[in-house]
Amino acid sequence: MFHAHNRIESANGQGSDLEQRFQHAAEHMKQVPGFVKFEMLRASDDSHYLVTTVWESEKHFHDWVKSPHFRAAHGGNESAGKATVSTYHVVI
After folding, report:
1. Which domains does the chain have, with CATH numbers?
2. Nearest to 21 by CA among 33, 10, 35, 32
3. Which of 29, 40, 65, 77 keeps 20 to 30 A from 2, CA to CA?
4. pLDDT for 10 beyond 50
């Protein structure tokens, strides 16, 4: 398993729009090869979100990043949004 975590800073009033956009994206993710799970967490102080995707492998994640599904989920722009991305391999 392979996890990708995106920390997205939340400007005042941006939260509900961001949540709605990701809710639609999560539905489309179900069609992506190697996709396992999606979660979106809002910080208790509303300052940021943590978006987690879980993949069968690192290759599946990188294939998705290069795919039309990714571009569509990010408004056609591969670098859309200001997120800090961290990736992890599951060891236990």
Report:
1. 2-89 (3.30.70.100)
2. 10
3. 77
4. yes
